[in-house]
Amino acid sequence: MTAEPQHYDDVLPNPGVEITPGNTAVVITDPQVDFLSEDGVTWHIVGPSVEKK
After folding, report:
1. Mean pLDDT, to the nearest integer, of 13-40?
2. Which alpha helices (H) appear in the chain, and where do they start and end?
């Protein structure tokens, strides 16, 4: 059995982005509602490609 990483730096690559409090926002979306549902806010944009067969 291998040991679990103790810090995210042990497993994730450094993206080269500095996050500064006060200038950073976190945006969380639910793709099943926001993008893939006919009631979602982006359905008019992505709907045709989702329905395409």
Report:
1. 82
2. 43-51
